[in-house]
Specification:
Layout (H helix, E strand, L loop, with lengths): L1 E6 L4 E5 H19 L5 E9 L3 E7 L2 E6 L20 E11 L6 E6 L11 H4 L5 E10 L2 E7 L2 E6 L21 E10 L4 E5 L1 H4 L6 H4 L9 E6 L2 E7 L2 E6 L5
Length: about 250
């Protein structure tokens, strides 16, 4: 133990076991940190999960933060979707700063950098014209981002969302978390860009239209829109024709 107070010629003595352990632990931590280097890999345990990341312990008394952006190659809404307190994880030391006033070291770790970057193999795994199933990760005014592989997202422009209806905003058709079919239009692995199409995955309804409809054929259809010059008639989703005013009566 460590004597923390000695008064009245020894009649009042206060001792602490904890203070001694803390002192010994700090010495061990300092020696450990002297040998630690950026890029080193450690086995760790999750000690705390917050809204901005998870704290992990790599050595008794040595903790650091894995920011939410470094937990997974996939986009996470909250760290608890990835880890929980008590989980055993493998992390990489990516930053180490020492506070000049307190002498304490601030450590930053990455969990995702221990794993291979999924974009490194995108060119081998994803090809133009391929149909895939993905999950809507974000809705933007210009389109939606779809995660087609863990950590790999592509963009469906709003003009590529549907053949059968006019989409004014993506939320009219999909919401975050929805599973959708997409077709790969282009892959730019170097700039991490993938162009996708939802409408091409469903197929163009005009393909084969000349085989399904013939001149003189009687068809039950639906009025889609009335104009002064006639009616627009929907024959099937995505296929609309004009009934001129002169042909109505």
């Amino acid at each position: 133990f460590l004597i923390t107070r000695f008064e009245e010629n020894g009649r009042n003595i206060v001792v602490s076991r904890r203070r001694l352990l803390e002192k010994e632990q700090k010495k061990s931590c300092d020696e450990f940190l002297k040998t630690a280097s950026i890029g080193a890999i450690f086995d760790a345990k999750v000690t705390k999960v917050t809204d901005f990341g998870a704290f992990v312990e790599i050595f008794p008394g040595v903790e650091g933060l894995v920011h939410v952006s470094e937990l997974s190659w996939s986009r996470l809404k909250k760290p608890s979707d990835m880890v929980r307190v008590g989980d055993a994880v493998t992390v990489k030391l990516i930053e180490m700063e020492t506070n000049g006033d307190t002498g304490k070291s601030k450590l930053s770790f990455s969990l995702k950098q221990v794993l291979k970057d999924p974009w490194d193999t995108v060119s081998d795994q994803i090809k133009n014209g391929e149909k895939m199933v993905g999950t809507v990760s974000r809705c933007m005014p210009f389109g939606v981002f779809i995660e087609i592989m863990p950590g790999v997202e592509g963009l469906v422009h709003i003009s590529e969302m549907s053949y059968t209806q006019r989409v004014l905003k993506p939320e009219d058709l999909v919401t975050e978390g929805d599973t959708v079919n997409v077709m790969v239009k282009s892959v730019d692995a170097e700039n991490r860009r993938i162009a996708l199409s939802m409408r091409d995955a469903e197929g163009d309804p005009w393909i084969g239209v000349d085989e399904r409809y013939k001149v003189g054929q009687m068809i039950a259809a639906t009025i889609a829109k009335k104009e002064r010059f006639g009616f627009f008639i929907t024959l099937e989703p995505g296929v609309t024709g004009l009934l001129p005013k002169s042909k109505i009566a």
